[in-house]
Amino acid sequence: MIGFRPVTQGEHLYVRVVDIFVNYDHALTKSIENFRNGSFVGNRSEEFADYFVGLYYFNLTARLVKTAKSILCDPNGNEFTYRSSFLTFLANQCSISEGQFGRANVNLLVNLSFEAALASGQSISNSTKNIVRASVPMLECYICGKSLFVNPVDARDAIEYEHVWPSSYGGDSIAANLLPACSCCNREKGAMMLWQDTWKHSLILPPYPSANDLTEINRPLKIALHRRRIFEYAVQHSLTLKDSALEIGPADFSAFAPMDLTDAADFFTIQF
Questions:
Q1: What angle in degrees, to the nearest 10, is found between the helix axes of 26-36 and 9-24?
Q2: Which among 76, 103, 119 is the end of a domain?
Q3: Taking a C-beta distance cutoff of 8 angstroms, is the pair 18, 58 a contact?
């Protein structure tokens, strides 16, 4: 899923990963399209095609960032050994070589991976926090809509600053990548990069679910559904993820329900 405007090092890496393999890995692209357009029992082929391709690109992007970060931790290394180690990883563990994808593309992957690794885990300055607060119309959690305060009476109402693109995967601690969030949503979203990389397979609700059944749609799943909408809107309108989130607004966590009450609902058929 590309087409949104990247602002962080991690997003630039992800976009390049998708772009390179869409253009060069024709076997993968063809397999996904065949699956997407196929008529399979269960009537979820298109949804699972989107799920698989997102999970595939998440996995590769995450591995590139984590490996680059691990290599950079070697105190005895230098630019040459870091690069050599990463090229070996790409060739041996990811089957990514200059012969298949071109020297320029591989060099770009190496550079973007190290830049994303260096951007990971940055602290948020007070001046950046001030800019973030000034950039939103209300101090509320951008995910669930809870009101937040800088100096709250109750610590549970304290504002936190959430990396829209996760910090652990190259999400810079800049105002363009930060939004106010409550502690619950910040904690439960964690390092979620795409909607595909959260645990959702066990959610199967019966037809005509009861109020108790609907409690199985927990906060992480609601965050993932909200995140899917943020990505889709950002792609449709060529926005940054932050701007897309602000235009969409928070999700009403009480409004999540199946689209079709006659079907056994899963993640793909929940709406809000």
A1: 90
A2: 119
A3: no
Same domain, 81 and 161: no
pLDDT tens digits, 210-239 = 999 999 999 999 999 999 999 999 999 999
The pLDDT tens digits of the residues spanning 89-127 come to 999 999 999 998 899 999 999 999 999 999 999 999 999
- Write the CB contacts of 108 (distance below 8 Å, at least 6 apart in sequence): 16
> Which residue's structure tokens are 């910040």?
186
DSSP per-residue string spanning 198-256: S--TT--BPSS--HHHHTTS-HHHHHHHHHHHHHHHHHHHT--HHHHHHHH----TT--
Considering 62, 94, 119, which residue would you say is the last residue of a domain? 119
CA distance 43 to 28: 22
Q: Looking at the structure, tell me whether residues 35 and 163 fall in a common domain.
A: no
The whole domain housing 152 covers 126-271
Q: How many domains does the chain have?
A: 2
Q: Output the CA angle 25-169-67, nearest 5 degrees.
A: 70
Residues 149 and 87 in one domain: no
Other residues' Cβ atoms within 10 Å of the Cβ of residue 232: 17
CA 7/CA 136 separation, integer angstroms: 18
> Pseudo-torsion of CA 199, 202, 204, 205, nearest 10°?
-90
Kindly write down the DSSP assignment for every residue of 100-123, as one continuous string: HH-HHHHHHHHHHHHHHHHHTT--
Rounded CA-CA distance 81/97 in Å is 18
pTM exceeds 0.85, yes or no: yes
User: Are both 81 and 132 inside the same structural domain?
Assistant: no
Is there a contact between 170 and 120 (Cβ–Cβ < 8 Å)? yes
